[in-house]
Amino acid sequence: MTDLSLSPPAPVYLVHGEEAMLRAEAVAAIRQAVLDEGMADFNLERFDGGQCGGADVVAAAQMLPVMAERRLVVVRFVERMKAEDLAPLAAQVRELLEARAALAQWVRGGSLRYREDILEGIDQAPGAIAGLYRGENLGKRLIRLAQDQ
User: How far is CA 44 from the centre of its chain?
Assistant: First the structure.
């Protein structure tokens, strides 16, 4: 299995195989790479394919994460889903991958730029968080703990 700590998490993973234990280990590795354990309860959704619709999965995937960078939506037994339930799920995955590729190309090409609001030192953390709620930042708010050497 690929070391997930070597690159940013992918938007979608397909885990399949005969061995349930290996599938479970793969999902656990993805969970560890994707979720901040302190917020995992808020940012993890689980579905069983025979008991959910594709629209339910898409709605869960479109929810914003709670105090974290990303959410994780796990669908087990996708093969049990009806064809009409798979269609919205497949469309969402396709749109997500296309959008991510376009955004990455725009950032690399310089036509899309983003701002970073960087504050220096851990002592700035309480005010930085409060400032987020007051709308004081432009772009992504970061707190630099130490200078790169």
Answer: 10
**Domain locations along the chain:** 4-83
Residue 73 pairs in a beta bridge with 45
pLDDT in tens, 6-39: 677 877 888 888 899 999 999 999 998 888 888 8
Beta carbons of 120 and 144 less than 8 angstroms apart = yes
Mean pLDDT of 108-115: 89
Write the DSSP string, 54-86: HHHHHHHHHSPPSSSS--EEEEE-GGGS-HHHH
pTM of the model as a whole: 0.64
Neighbours of 35 (CB within 10 A): 21
Collapsing DSSP to helix, strand or coil, 19 comes out as coil
What is the CATH code of the structural domain delimited by 4-83? 3.40.50.300
- Give 45's DSSP letter: E
Q: Calculate helix-pair angle for 54-62, 83-109, nearest 10 degrees.
A: 30
Strands of the chain, DSSP E: 44-48, 72-76, 116-120, 140-144
Q: Mean pLDDT over residues 72-94, rounded?
A: 89
